[in-house]
Amino acid sequence: MNRTSLLAFFLPRNRNGLRRTARLPLATLAILAGGTGSAFGQVKFTPGAEQVAVAVNGQPFTVFHYGRVENKPFLHPLLTPSGKNVLRGFPVSPLPGDPTDRPHQRGLWVGSEGVTGPGGQADFWENDPLYPAEGKGRIVVQKLLEATEGAEQGRLAIEAHWISPQKKVWVVERRTMTFYSQPADCRMFDVTIELTAAEPITFDDEQDGVLGLRLALPFDDHYDGKVVNEAGRTQEDVRGQRSPWLDWVGQLDPREYQSSIHGSGEAIGVAVFDHPSNHNYPARWQVRTNGVYILSPFGGKAFEKFDPTARDAAHPMKRGDTLRFRYRILIHPEKVGIAPFFKAWAAQK
Asked: What's the DSSP call for residue 40?
């Protein structure tokens, strides 16, 4: 099969419809992602057990985990061109010194803390299996819709069902992740989320949801990590504020990492861009300086203590209604300014 052709496949399940996600150490990702041969200018996918590995320019970049056991799909790790993970390792692949709070914050994920539908409210955010199951929803991948490789970009798309505690499908999600091979000194990808109501529901006004990341230890403010928004606010002063983007810079050489592959210093930024076409743009952000990084289009009155002008942002949907969100994530050297990147992104229709 041609490497730029469409690869579509369905993963087998056991008789209960479930299978545990395979856990692979970072050292094996190069094998999964096609080795380290001369593949500059390419995005390649390698399917595995309940996951798909992504390589960019011949180097491992990330793995999409179906997350059936974890109750939601997620991306982990996110590697710089030099191979450093900008995400917290715990609980997927812990690194020395990793904080072990909030195990639901796995890599980069999608969800919502409060969705009200037939029978009550469900939590599709803090829904890790380590927590009590009461009131928790599950986001279950149904099929891989697309895995298209290419020289300049590659596209991975899935369909998932948001299943209520009563085992009813409330939301059908179609998520498309587009990975780019350029610029070579960065890693850039888009996440497009389409949420279609299968029942009358409301996305409640909450601080947590729709897109979340938990960054690695070096981004913590105790290690001089610094987050800034478009208005120039920094650290937790960005919390609850509207902004079209945030950029978070960390030095990837804390003392805990000295014995790991992360031991050589590198100043890296992780920028997340909202898009002008998105509902409630520019969104508010739920940020904690320990690396919690959440873009919250349904967050309004929940942030009132941080912004007295905040108003209720709950969003009701009738059966068949669809919301579409577009986000871009840019992992970049600190010296690379993000302004032209955001301008190009915002200009896209």
From this structure: T
Place of tokens 């812990």: 94
Contact 39, 55 (CB under 8 A): yes
Q: Closest by alpha carbon to 163, among 142, 192, 178?
A: 142
**Residue 345 · residue 271 · CB < 8 Å:** no
Torsion of CA 17, 21, 22, 23, to 10 degrees: -170
Cα gap 89→226, rounded to integer Å: 20
50: DSSP letter = T
Q: Which two three-digit tokens encode residue 9?
A: 């496949």
User: What is the mean pLDDT of each successive set of 10 residues along the chain, which is 349 residues long?
Assistant: 35 34 33 40 93 97 97 97 92 89 94 97 95 95 97 98 98 98 97 98 97 94 93 97 97 67 74 98 96 97 97 98 98 95 97
Position 205 scores a pLDDT of: 98
User: Do the beta carbons of residue 206 and residue 113 sit within 8 Å?
Assistant: yes
* Coil/strand/helix, residue 236: helix
The three-state secondary structure class of 118 is coil
Residues near 338 by beta carbon (within 8 Å), at least 6 away in sequence: 245, 247, 269, 271, 330, 332
Beta bridge partners of 180: 153, 188
C-alpha separations of 115 from 137, 147, 196, 243, 332 in Å: 9, 30, 13, 24, 34
> Could you write out the DSSP letters of every residue in 290-341?
TTEEEEETT-SGGGTTT-TT-----EEE-TT-EEEEEEEEEEEETTS-SHHH
φ, ψ dihedrals at 171, nearest 5°:
-135, 140
Judging by DSSP bridges, how do beta strands 245-251 and 115-117 pair with one another? Answer: unpaired
Global confidence as pTM: 0.87
Domains of the chain: 26-347 (2.70.98)
Cα 271 from Cα 249, distance rounded (Å): 9
